[in-house]
UniProtKB/TrEMBL annotation:
Pfam families: Reg_prop. Gene3D superfamilies: YVTN repeat-like/Quinoprotein amine dehydrogenase. Keywords: Signal. Transmembrane segments: none annotated. Residues 1-18 form the signal peptide. The keyword Signal applies. This is Hybrid sensor histidine kinase/response regulator. It comes from Proteiniphilum acetatigenes.
């Protein structure tokens, strides 16, 4: 869903022990790349991230930094339409776009791209690339009409999960028990139990 807003939020002052709040309205005039915001996320560094229709925006409390694709630079973000943002661990974010999934190393300021050649641009939509993660760092991805994948951290790539049922997926969530929850276009909810076996993630049950 698309929202056209001025970003309006509370920043807790880290300089004072008192309960003082700094209320600010942030807009294009402050450096926000686009006022149509799809997702807002705060990472463990207390940085604010805004996924817009024209770039990924990071706000550090003073100014914005905008990330957009750069022609010829494979370490830039793959697309300017940002759909979702999650955190794998400190300084590592995952970003779902309309053209692939990206892993951002904040300290190195580098993106790794995944699935960028998997779909034709004309068939992409807000549900084409979905991401989910839990507190143990498990990362799951869904790619439209292709399947569900888990991130293999040793091989640094996504591996497919063996799920036979064709699902028209709208949302995925993985909880801290490694249970994958899937909401479909038909408003059906599936719970998929996962288990680590050696270096693979296997499906043990589907409800």
């Amino acid at each position: 869903m698309r929202y056209t807003v001025n970003i309006f939020f509370l920043l807790l002052s880290l300089m004072s022990e008192a309960n003082n709040y700094d209320i600010r309205v942030l807009s294009n005039k402050d450096g926000l790349s686009n006022s149509s915001v799809n997702v807002v996320f705060q990472d463990s560094n207390k940085l604010m991230w805004f996924g817009t229709w024209d770039g990924l925006n990071m706000y550090n409390g003073k100014e914005f930094r905008v990330y957009k694709p750069s022609t010829g630079n494979a370490e830039s973000i793959s697309n300017n339409i940002i759909r979702d943002i999650i955190e794998e661990k400190k300084d590592i974010l995952w970003i779902a776009t309309d053209f692939g999934i990206n892993r951002l190393n904040i300290r190195e300021n580098k993106f790794e791209r995944f699935f960028v050649d998997s779909l034709h641009r004309e068939v992409t939509n807000e549900h084409s690339y979905l991401i989910a993660g839990n507190r143990s760092g498990r990362i799951i991805a869904s790619v439209y009409q292709q399947g569900i994948y888990f991130f293999h951290s040793i091989n640094n790539r996504f591996e497919p999960l063996d799920i036979d049922e064709p699902l028209n997926i709208r949302k995925i969530i993985i909880d801290d028990k490694d249970q994958l929850w899937i909401l479909t276009k038909e408003k059906l909810l599936f719970k998929i139990a996962l288990r680590q076996h050696e270096d693979q993630l296997i499906v043990t049950d589907i409800d």
